[in-house]
Each structure stands twice: as C-alpha cells, then as structure tokens.
Amino acid sequence: MSVDVFAPIASRSTIQDGVYRQLRYALMTGRFEPGQTLTMAALSESFGTSHMPVREALRRLVAENALELAANGSARIPATSRARLDDLCRARIAVESLATELAVPNVTARDIVELEDTIREHETIGLTDSVYAMLDKNQEFHFHLYGASRSEVLIQLIETLWLRFGPYMRMLTHHIEPLLKTDSAGAYSIHHREIVAALKGKDVVAARAAIVADIEATRDLLRGLIGEEQS
Asked: If DSSP codes are grouped into helix, strand and coil, which group holds residue 37?
C-alpha cells in the first residue's frame, strides 16, 4: 500500500495525535500488507511532518502490539498465522459478545433505525464502491452496537483487538474485492441482520449467538486464506 492515503497534519498542537489517529485507523481497517515495513522517512513525507511525531506514533502502536519494531528502528506489520488468528478471535468473541449482551437492553428505536441504515449502506457500497468503504460501514455497525453497552473499558479493549486484527483485515480485502458488484457482496450482512432482529426482540441470547457467528465466519474464511498462502 502507498502511504499517500494520509492527510497532511497542519496544526502543531494536534500533530502527534493526528499522525497517531490516522495510522491507527489505517491499521485497523487493513490498509497495510502483513509483514510490510513502515519507514519514518516515507510516513513523514506522506504526513508532511518531521520524523518526531511519526516516531512517537510508531512507538505507541508498537506498545499496543499493532506493530513490531524492526532492527533498524522502522516498524513492521505483524505477519499472519492461524494460531494468532484463532487467539485473536477467541478474545474478540469473549469481549464483543459481552458488549453485545450489555447493549441489548440499552438499544433504542433510533439505534435500530441507524443500524438498519448502516446495513443497507454496507450492501449498497458492496455493489457500487470500494472494499474499504464497505469495511468502514462494517466497523461503523459494530462500534455503534458496542457503544450501546455503555462500557468504556470494553470498547477500548475491542478497539485494541481490532487494531491487532488489521493484517487479517488486509487479507479480507483481497478476498472481498473481486466479489464487489456481484450478488455475493450482500452475504456479508447476514449476521448483522440477525443481530438487529435479536435487538428488536430484546433477545440477549440470540444477539450474542449472532455476534459470535459473525466473528467465527470471518475467522473460518481467514483460516482458509492463510492455508492457501502457506500451501
């Protein structure tokens, strides 16, 4: 991936946080290849900054296990493996299912409408736009749902897990992109619709089962893709 997706940071007071937030979001949404090296020189040029804010952003992301520190001081996207994927998905299931359970009694009629709107936008984008726009809507759906848990701690944990899931999201984009603008694109909303149906009925058990099924379906797809790469 080219680092020219980043916007220049103009305000000196927000420069470090701006670099960090943009890099964090790019990692979370799978904008980098597994094993890809990120150099301070290239990132600094892309952001239009000195090396210092980039160095600080990379340091923070290494501390969050989203990046690995290379011997020359640059940073590297972690490689993918089935073992790491399974570990991350176990943690995601534990934390995201709990957030979903807590969200069910708090979800309002307005939340339902907005979640349904997001599903429709997600499906429309799958037929008309880029894979990244589609995955943005997927993330919007999940974090709207988890926000209703009213648990700051759980949301922070989920964000960290999604950040570490970034290399697998990149693999997912490669798989999904050829399917865009076909009937297959809508298949990725099945579990989201099940979640909304459960929310409408205030059914905690069904909502939890649907979010678990959503994560497991992604895990199983990715396990196959990793197997293909290693064969």
From this structure: strand
